[in-house]
Amino acid sequence: MSLSKIDIKNLFPEISNVCKNCDTCCKTYGWLLEKEAKKFIKKDYPLIKLNNSLYCIDSFNRDSKGNLILDKIPRCKFYKNKRCIIQNEKPLDCKLFPIKVKFKEDNCFLGLSLGCKYLSSLNKKEKYEIYNRVKKFIEHMPKKDLDKYLNLMYKVNLISQTKKFWMKKLITFKKEGNSWKLISFHD
After folding, report:
1. pTM of the model
2. Are 73 and 160 within one domain?
3. Quick one: 81 and 159 in the same domain?
4. What is the pLDDT of residues 71-129, one digit of tens each?
5. What torsion do the CA atoms of 102, 104, 106, 112 make, to the nearest 10 degrees?
6. Residues 57, 40 share a domain
7. Inter-CA distances, 2 with 45, 82, 135, 183, Å
């Protein structure tokens, strides 16, 4: 997967201006696609492999015996001074934020996190423009890359407790084997 071919940087104009004053994001496991995990391993970044198939950044807190504390989502290890210190290398899942996914059986709902201060700072017209920009971005994302990302998130969903968050639903996909079929766009 060539992340350099995905024009994520222009997806959310001016987001960095809001992010640097926010300090509420980056409480995440930092899920990695397999190719991203290989790069992180080569750089000796702290990773954990779960169920022999899923990689995430090892930002976990540990108890006095060294066991992972799993009931609290950790702040990412790479979040320092209100910014990502691996900005140019961060995982696709992080780059896509405030895009979020939710699953119900074999349906995937892709949308925008309504808890994001960037989105709440926008007026109605600007939000509409962002919604359309995200829809176009996802629609033009290479199919194999989109499938890899949605399959990763699907696997994460299978082993995780469902996180509760509000989102503006933009796109619905249906799982068909290892592929995801776009079902509908939402306004």
Report:
1. 0.89
2. no
3. no
4. 888 899 999 888 899 988 999 999 999 999 999 999 999 999 998 999 999 999 999 99
5. -20
6. yes
7. 20, 27, 20, 25
